[in-house]
């Protein structure tokens, strides 16, 4: 018996095996392992997924779990399939038999394993790929599908991954959403049958369901105990996860592009590559899965995940469409006054024939509006330079309003059905991205702005509607490709953007957080989490994102939503990439001083929040407060955020045990972000404690008033 496991990581850099039974193909990370074997019929079976084994050869003696890795439709299986097509001769079934497997080390920490399979009767192949990131305990899985039949075949189902579980019970955490209600976490026990989480929305794909889930085995997931798998699809379009619990209490989880209305025609000799399913497993709860994914995302998904971000002042919430050069010049001066790095000009700066004074017109006409900006955008860039701050600008280049010159000039560039009325959302239509001319146009929106104003230092890329009446004039008789081709075209445009502007910071926005996934984020430095900036709601929204997204990518702005104090709003926004969207002139002296100091504090502590490990200590879903902390890898510095939510009648809260510190180190605790002329009420202010004490006894970090907050800087002495 041959084992690829273990040996592979240590000695060989590439290892290939060909068809024979009883061999283990193990995809390993430092802590975890996913094991497949090939049976006598040359089928590849999943035999294990969990904590790394000392000796995976023992799996052969037990005859435990045995589930085919990627079950095709049409022969003996009675449940949901991973792949389905009809061959040229009309045979509607696929069989997949092992051909070979190989593993190669891409670097010291990443191993790619490929398992090749083919249909014994047809020239039809599936290669299953795994990339295992040892240090982060993350695995990416995807498939490549190809054939050599005479005519194209149509793929009806084409999953990225199928994983199997045999547990007593299964608990699924999903994150559903809507505009201003992003990442609502909900956990439920899976019962017999199929639970599907999917999107059919095309462009703004995640606005109702997000492509993130956690699956806990045997009991509901908690932060520090229990087996949990956290998964997501790296795809900025329609996705589908199905969880099917069968008659034997086995669960199969199928992840991939949503095949709904997306039958995909594949020509002979061409390869269809699915997006990657990204997952991590832990037997010690959700804290580990989210730390793994945050770490992985910073290193391998998010653009420039290890580089600093700019703080900013945005004008959307304060002006909406109502501004001019003079007002903006004032706001640029406010940017300087506040101490943040950049002024971000939002929607409303463009179009002349139909000026953009509300959301009813103008998308598509990306010329500065001559009434609002008689001297163009350039004067604002210069003004920012004069003030010693940077300038950024909003675009929504994939969209068009019927009331626009673009619509008049290019009615054939728009996604809409023939012979049916146009269907609007926010009064707009989606451009036909599969059309290369449209791709040039969309790229040109950003490129022209940058060429004309090389001083632009930041962009916000918005996308305010899902796709309906989905018909691409360009795709002609291949309409079922529209959702996939749209997303691929978007990536093509962004590839061009990144080839020319590799490090330009761009915020990914979609009417709030309607379009967030790891593949999309590979082109962006950050994302707009939600238009809902009421800090009470925001605690929940940010909590939800934290299971997958690093704080450095999560844009949190201080606005006038909610009635809470500026301190509460600021403390909540600090738990991510902080920004402002308020009238600086409306702040009183103390509020302004508080905000200026907060910006200074944020700059001092942000590296811990951005690059540290996050620990969720008290969940807002379980009581009237939330407490979370970030600890740098050296365990020399930590920042703890404590928020009281709807606490009533001077509710008393117990002490909170800190996490992630070094028990042998001594730490000084300092409450920061105090409002001018107030003093910390905490008896431990300024005192020093051992990590041992802080983690075993803890601190009483919550006050008693509703909607108040405290931030603590914890520094090794
Ligand atoms: C939706 C975004 O989420 C907002 O932040 C703002 O940019 C508007 N679009 C502008 O139309």
Account of the 3D structure:
It is globular and about 80 Å long. It is α+β, with helices and mostly antiparallel strands. A hairpin with a 4-residue loop joins strand 9 and strand 10. Mean pLDDT is 96; it is low at 1-14. The protein has three domains: 3-298, Distorted Sandwich (Beta-galactosidase, Chain A, domain 5), CATH 2.70.98.60; 312-612, Aldolase class I (TIM Barrel); 614-716, Golgi alpha-mannosidase II (Immunoglobulin-like, Sandwich), CATH 2.60.40. Helices cover 20% and strands 31% of the residues. The longest helix is centred in the C-terminal third of the chain and has 23 residues, at 589-611. (2R,3S,4R,5S)-2-(hydroxymethyl)piperidine-3,4,5-triol (DGJ) binds next to loops.
Summarize the structure.
This protein is α+β, with helices and mostly antiparallel strands.
What would the average pLDDT be, to the nearest integer?
Answer: 96
CATH superfamily of the largest domain: Aldolase class I
Characterize the largest beta sheet: strand count, sense, and whether it forms a barrel: 11 strands, antiparallel
Low-confidence stretches: 1-14
What is the 3D shape?
A: globular
Q: Give the number of DSSP strands.
A: 38
Tell me roughly what share of residues is in helical segments.
Answer: 10-25%
CATH fold naming of the largest domain: TIM Barrel
- Span of the ends, CA to CA: 54 Å
What would CATH call the architecture of the largest domain?
Answer: Alpha-Beta Barrel
SS summary, helix count: 14
Number of domains: 3
Computed Rg: 27 Å
- The top-level CATH class of the largest domain is Alpha Beta
SSE class: alpha+beta
Hetero compounds: (2R,3S,4R,5S)-2-(hydroxymethyl)piperidine-3,4,5-triol
Strand content: 25-35%
